[in-house]
Amino acid sequence: MSQRVLSPTAPRKPAGVAERTRPSPRRRAVEAAEKSWRPLALLAACFGAWWVIAAAGWVESYLLPTPGATLDVLLEQPGYLWEHGWVTTYETLLGFLIAVGVGILSAVLMVYSSTVEKTLYPILLFAQVVPKIAIAPLFVVWLGFGIGPKVLIAVLIAFFPVVISMVTGLKAVDPEMLQLSATMGARPWQTFLKIRFPASLPHLFSGLKVAVTLAVTGAVVGEFVGANEGLGYVILQANGNLDTPMLFAGLLVMSLIGVVLFVLVEIAEKLLLPWHASRRDAAATTTL
Amino acid sequence: MGTVNDTALNKSDAAPEQPGAPSDRTATIAPAVRLADVAVRFRTKKKDVTALEEVSLDVARGEFVAIVGPSGCGKSTLLKLVAGLLAPSAGGVALGGEHVRGPRRDIGFVFQRAALLDWRSARRNILLQAEMRGLPAAGARARADELIRMTGLDGFEDAYPHELSGGMQQRVALCRALLHEPPVLLMDEPFGALDEPFGALDALTREQMNVELHRIWRETDTTVLLVTHSIPEAVYLADRVVVMSPRPGTVTEIIEVGLPREREYAATLASAEFRSATGRIRELLGAAGAHD
């Protein structure tokens, strides 16, 4: 039985409500093309330039491989890159998730207790100012060559944007909303769960998008310092062998991981905060 | 401080509250809202600002009182005192015969901006009131549906705030404030935002909102305290209009509006009583100067 029959119970939309119509697939494809042709064209131009420079022999091939040679590596050794790419992805995700958990918790504690804020904030700032890349060798000494130091660096590097965005979000709540909550006799945890936390999510997600891409960097830096697996290791090996096609292939896979993780966070944002995404899109179209 | 306040509050009470007397009995004797010699001072870096000075006001149960005055005369501060969101620097505030010591649950509050949660539909925004109070869900839902019908929001229950016009958002806020059937409804320029950018269209919405609010008030025995900067709105809606002076805010005069309880909008606006009351208030505000 078809579900597409117009049911008599379908909610009527009275005039005045902004229509939340679903555009047709064709219309959506056109919109997607309009939105993405410029960056795609730029990307194509960059690849074209790369190809021309490399193929014309202006630069020695051991310094700059052709796109074709890089692609060959990707196609010939997919297992090798996949295996090491997965290690890096795993370290990145683990580091990111720990950073999110600890970051949200610290942000909540800092917003609700000025003592915690005064104690924690200077240390946080200090931890952010210390170049994490410089302390990476120390972590290898402490934690060995396993995934420990990679995850730890990813956590440290992704933590800051999570805390800052969450604190901003929790503090940005409408004061009248909190007063209203007081007249409702709400308990502090109710105000937190029903008002403050959901209100902070748009801010949190902008921090998460920064954090997830930084986490990839963190994991790779960890691998540079001491590892026998992961894309950082692949790149160092390729570098030592002057195997530039492999080096470029490693870079491409690494970027791909970053892009995929970023897009996943965006999708999660759209699913969890549909009200925010639609309002933001509406705001964007009106300001244009 | 507590004893001073209590004395101030009981000063003009015919029958002072017996210790241990049932509170619902005293509630029928005491006015719904009482402000006794209230003053509010804010301390800023440069100087102390007196927002309210020697404000005394009794609002009877079921009465509709409007407060008008120039910008910055402490009208909104007055409502926050009644709600217990702000403590007076001097004097006392009582609600239903009970001294206000902190945020009060037995009120409904409507702010100038609707203050709705973006991630909740109109109905779920209204039901927030019930969730916070732990009211039984089924009863609250039925009551919400009733309010949605009363305010003409039917068909928009599942719309999100950004899909609603300013007037509709304000209706949702009104429903939320009325859900728990509070004895006292406090409204801080609830329709003030409606006449900001688009004149004619929203003036119509404002008129509708006034008519609806008055009908809702007639149908319930709610006590209403409304802060507004619209003189016609104040006179059309209220039994009494409190006219306030510029900062520091004091009560200049209280105007009794001699209009019948049932008020047809156009006929009321054309009546002699309406014109004399609005004229008198304009005069008072003009004499005080600085009215916008």
Structural features, described:
The complex is a heterodimer of chains A (288) and B (292). Chain A is an all-alpha fold and 288 residues long. Chain A contains 11 helices and no strands. The longest helix of chain A has 38 residues, at 188-225. Chain A starts with 24 loop residues before the first helix and ends with a helix. Chain B has 292 residues and is an alpha/beta fold. Chain B has 2 domains: 32-91 and 102-106 and 183-292, Rossmann fold (3-Layer(aba) Sandwich); 118-181, no CATH class. Chain B is built from 10 helices and 10 strands. Residues 1-8 and 10-27 of chain B have low confidence and may be disordered. Chain A binds chain B through residues 11-14, 16-18, 20, 174, 176-177, 179-186, 190, 194-195, 198-199, 273, 275-276, 278-279, 282, and chain B through 80, 83, 85, 103-105, 107-109, 111, 113, 115, 117-119, 128-129, 131-133, 155-156, 158-160, 162-165, 168. Chain B: Residues 1-10 have a biased composition (Polar residues). Chain B: This is Putative ABC transporter ATP-binding protein. Chain B: GO terms for molecular function: ATP binding; ATP hydrolysis activity. Chain B: It holds the Pfam family ABC_tran. Chain B: Residues 33-271 form the ABC transporter domain.
Would you report the number of β strands of chain B?
Answer: 10
What would the principal axes of the Cα set say about the shape of chain A? flat
Structural Rg of chain A: 24 Å
Main beta-sheet strand count, sense and barrel state of chain B: 6 strands, mixed
**Tally of individual helices of chain B:** 10
Strand content of chain A: under 5%
Helix percentage of chain B? 25-40%
> What structural category do the secondary elements of chain A indicate?
mainly alpha
- What pattern of helices and strands is seen along the backbone of chain A? HHHHHHHHHHH
* Count of individual beta strands of chain A: 0
Strand content bin of chain B: 15-25%
- The average pLDDT of chain B is 80
Which oligomeric form is depicted?
heterodimer
Gross geometry of chain B: globular
Order of helices and strands of chain B: HHEEEHEEEHHHEHEHEEHH
| Uncertain runs of chain A | 1-20
> CATH homologous superfamily of the largest domain in chain B - what is it?
P-loop containing nucleotide triphosphate hydrolases
| CATH architecture classification of the largest domain in chain B | 3-Layer(aba) Sandwich
Structural class by SSE content of chain B: alpha/beta
- Global Rg of chain B: 19 Å
* First-last Cα distance of chain B: 37 Å
Pfam family, one (chain B): ABC_tran
Region (Disordered) (chain B): 1-25
GO molecular function (chain B): ATP binding; ATP hydrolysis activity
InterPro entries (chain B): AAA+_ATPase, ABC_transporter-like_ATP-bd, ABC_transporter-like_CS, ABC_transporter_ATP-bind, P-loop_NTPase
